[in-house]
Amino acid sequence: MTSTPVDIGVLEEKSNWLLHPRFFPSKVGGKPAWLDLKNLYSPTELTCKKCNEPFVFLCQVYAPYEEKDYCFHRTVFIFVCRNGSCCRTNCADNFLVLRCQLPRENIFYSFHPYEENEQQSFSMEKWAKLCHVCGIKGPSHCSKCKMSYYCSRKHQILDWQKGHKEVCSKLQVGEKIPIPDFVVTDAGKSILFKEWELVVDTEDEEDKTVVNENEEMEKLRKMISERSAGTLSNISESEIEQYTRNMPEDKVFSKFSKRISRHPEQVLRYDRGGNPLWITENSVNNLINIPKCQYCNGERQFEFQVMPQLLNFINAGIDFNSLDWGILAIYTCKNSCNEGLAYKEEFIIKQDL
Q1: What is the pLDDT of residues 2-22, one digit of tens each?
Q2: Nearest 10 degrees: CA dihedral of 17, 19, 24, 29?
Q3: What is d(CA 311, CA 275) in angstroms, rounded to the nearest whole number?
Q4: C-alpha span between 207 and 200 (Å, rounded)
Q5: Which residue(s) pair with 304 in the sheet?
Q6: pTM of the model
Q7: For residue 207, what are the CA distances in angstroms to 9, 223, 259, 324?
Q8: DSSP conformation class of 54
Q9: Cα separations in angstroms, 61 against 34, 58, 226, 250
Q10: 3-state secondary structure of 19
């Protein structure tokens, strides 16, 4: 019996301007490319429950419901606390998932696709002001120039230290210095993940040739060990061995490693209405109690999962203090309901090895 093909996501570098909201991108890192540009979550709602620090944008997946007019444009966003001490085993409290959707005819975007023209203007003046550092809603601004907006005092101070101090006086005297909404600034580079385009394509069919599962599992074990050692620089070899020694006996992990061997670089698996590819049999039964949608009381269904390989791309050059996961499984309202807020909270399961 063969496995059902799913869509997989891989990362590619792309010019920042091509990841602007008007192109409805799927992307990782940088600032969020919001869909509804007006009715954004407030900074207090995009805050970690444990440490009260602002969430950082992790990724977004553009996934319209073609059969529903009000879901002509539809994007699912994931945010995370970058504080490693808030990351707990099999606990997703340090994550937030939001779903947003729009009909084709809306007040933000053209009815027809935009041309890929870097010089094309797209004014944000009448929509929500965004934090100059992280790209979430910025209700406060610099008291001197009144041109740069921020989600929090912490990000305002960070931006002052990372360059705004030098340009603020020029802005005060009317010098025209562009303050882009979606370009990552020097301050943003110090806290945001590296920005990538997320390219989705169909998974290859199962290779009928004989696969040495022990070799494939050893490759994945090595990847996990290297990632752990790179994220936690003081981890010992004995701790790594303890972390991975039970993997060969885990049939779920064996299935996981065999399936991803088709595309070792995949960072996302999209299978709306399907089932997650769990990474281990441990704790599976404790993780699948999916609550109903809090807006319409309808059922939720699995939509996609984020893979551990993503950590190898977003942590490059930045110490994120042991931010880690095995998989992140995202469940969304089966009807993709239109009730309630513009950005609706959805459900996430974090499974660790």
Answers
A1: 456 799 999 999 999 999 999
A2: -150
A3: 22
A4: 20
A5: 270, 330
A6: 0.86
A7: 19, 22, 10, 30
A8: B
A9: 11, 11, 28, 30
A10: helix
Question: Which of 85, 82, 28 minimizes the C-alpha distance to 53?
Answer: 82
Here the tokens at position 150 are 């921020």
Token readout for 42 is 């407030």
How confident is the model over 284-306, as pLDDT tens digits? 666 678 999 999 999 999 999 99
Other CB atoms closer than 10 Å to residue 229's CB: what's the count?
A: 15
Q: For residue 23, what are the CA distances in angstroms to 66, 73, 116, 353?
A: 17, 11, 8, 36
3-class DSSP string for 180-199: CCCCCCHHHHCCCCCCEEEE
Nearest Cα to Cα of residue 292 among 342, 339, 352, 351 = 339
Dist CA 331 CA 348 (whole Å):
6
List CB contacts of 190: < 8 A, sequence separation 6 or more.
Answer: 158, 162
* Tokens 């192109």, located at residue: 23
Token code pair at residue 341: 């807020």
pLDDT above 50 for 209: no
- Answer whether 58's CB lies under 8 Å from 80's CB: yes
Total length of the chain: 353
